Amino acid sequence: MVSRRIATVGITLLLLVFFLLPVYHLATMSLKTQADTFASPPVWLFSPTTEHYDGLLAGRFPRYMWNSFVVSVANVALTLALGAPAAFALARARVRGRKVILFAILATRMMPPISLALPVFVVFLYGGLLDTRLGLVLIFLSFNLPLTVWLLHGFFSEVPDELLDAARIDGASVLRAFFNVAVPYVASGIVAVTILAWIYSWNEFTFTLILTRRDAITATVALGQLFTFETVAWGRIAAGGSLTMFPVMLLAVIGRRYFVRGLTGGGLTE
Amino acid sequence: MKETRLYLLMLLPAVVALLMVVVLPLTALGYISLLNWDLRRPGITFAGSGNYIRMLSDPDLLNSLRVTAWFVVGAISLQVALALVLAEILVALRRTQTLIRTLILLPMVIPPLVAGIIWRILLEPRAGLVNHFLDFVGLRHAWLADPNTALGAVVLTDVWQWTPLILLLLLARYAVIPTSIYDAAAVDGATGWTRFYFITLPLVRPVLMAAVVLRMIDAIREFAKIFIMTGGGPGVSTETLNMYVYRVAFTYGNLGYAAALGVFLFAIVLSLTLALTSVQKRFEVL
């Protein structure tokens, strides 16, 4: 029994090292001097420097992070405004074809971004939406709206009929039942979906790479561009990577309970 | 009746939006696939099935399908195997399990692009941490620059990022398996492998099946990681179908042919989505 216990602890520690050391390594690398970064053997204790952050923040990177922020917040707001009523309708209305609509929405969620990005690139090129934040806000609907409708539909289905019926006897319309009863009832679900959709927007890369050039670039695509220089500025890349991943990690830890459910498209529940 | 109409009104904006950002572009994709449209050449002409016929004898397409298959099968089988082993071990933990479940969330929430950057740094030939450890066994290697190992390195990164997802799903499933089942099995003398094979595996199979199909869809669409780690190279050794569509469209500017490839990619993902729903229906996971 004791040896089994030791094995369990040992493997658990190995597991944590494998999954967490890479993240830790990036974060510390952003604070190391070039000499420390390339030291062999690796330096575990070092005197931190902020030179990479200083360099990064003096350039255009803050602007790109701001783009990420604006696009993701606007996209999530639009997603919820469109998705929440639709999810409620799908959960409550007794109409034929509901199952088909739900499947269509799930299938939409699974679209390969590259297949969509190609025609959208052409449309944006001629429609003047190329390299604009508005364009990104709109096209990010293609993955976040189906996700939101799918997940919220599940939550709204759990609202007890009696509650909604009681609201309607009081003379409230469907809309009032939605705003005054259903939305407060699933408030925690809405928060979870908001966090998740925001993370997807923030992390997005494929659409942004193809549909932006200069002005509307977001943090992820800006990070990719740091690699194109002759000498790869590892410290600066590590600083940018840390700045980009930190907000997401924070939110994920806060919203942990809902996370797996969302990542699997709501098809599987934790 | 008035009520039904209100519900339809609530549904309408979302449906219109999805038509605009998904159905319309896909229709356009289908139309573009019928054109000779190359940004390097003047003019657009009708190609009919020309682009699709070209696909039948395209060695790069064949290569990309092979790479995609290796990437998807390699990454997912490793993820499932690793997750099953780790779940068996972690399920024994009590108080620390919650903490570990929170910590291993981190790889899967960070942007895939950053995951790619992290592993590109770790695998860096000169100062990469992986090579530092491998020095002890004399295996220092430029993993991403070698066509024989680059795909493996990308698979490793995907395993790192997504094993936690399958592991968390398994642990959640384990948590609702009544211990009485195991107690009864113990009375019958089932331990170790027998227990795992005849009791645990059948109980987690529904979740596992759905997770596998879901991961397949995601792996086929993987772009950021491969883009930042290898860009499809060296040569075309890590060029998945997804990456190939990108190269044809945005490096070569051959929009017509890229659209035909895009339709093909779309068809693969759609059939997997159909498989996912049938899996979920059969096992009642939905």
Tell me about the biggest sheet of chain B?
2 strands, antiparallel
Q: Which consecutive residue ranges of chain A, at least 5 long each, have pLDDT under 50? A: 265-270
Largest sheet geometry of chain A: none
CATH class of chain B: Mainly Alpha
Distance between the termini of chain A: 31 Å
Number of contiguous helices of chain A: 15
Strand residue percentage of chain B: under 5%
Class of the largest domain in chain A, according to the CATH hierarchy? Answer: Mainly Alpha
What is the third-level CATH name, the topology of the largest domain in chain A?
Answer: MetI-like fold
Secondary structure: number of strands of chain B:
2
CATH fold assignment of chain B? MetI-like fold
Shape of chain B: globular
Assembly state (oligomeric)? heterodimer
Report what the structure shows.
The complex is a heterodimer of chains A (270) and B (286). Chain A is an all-alpha fold and 270 residues long. Chain A has two domains: 1-49, no CATH class; 59-263, MetI-like fold, CATH 1.10.3720. Chain A has helices spanning 2-29, 34-37, 51-58, 61-92, 98-109, 113-127, 133-139, 141-157, 161-169, 174-185, 187-203, 206-211, 219-225, 234-254, 256-263. In chain A, α4 (61-92) packs across α8, α8 packs antiparallel against α11 (187-203) and α11 packs antiparallel against α14 (234-254). In chain A, 50% of the residues are buried. The model of chain A is unreliable at 265-270 (pLDDT under 50). Chain B has helices spanning 2-32, 50-56, 59-90, 95-103, 105-109, 112-122, 129-134, 150-175, 179-187, 192-221, 224-229, 241-251, 255-283, and strands at residues 35-37, 44-46. In chain B, 42% of the residues are buried. Chain B contains 13 helices and two strands, in the order αββαααααααααααα. In chain B, strands 1-2 form a two-stranded antiparallel sheet. With 286 residues, chain B is an all-alpha fold. At the A-B interface, α1, α4, α5, α6 and α8 of A face α1, α3, α4, α5 and α6 of B.
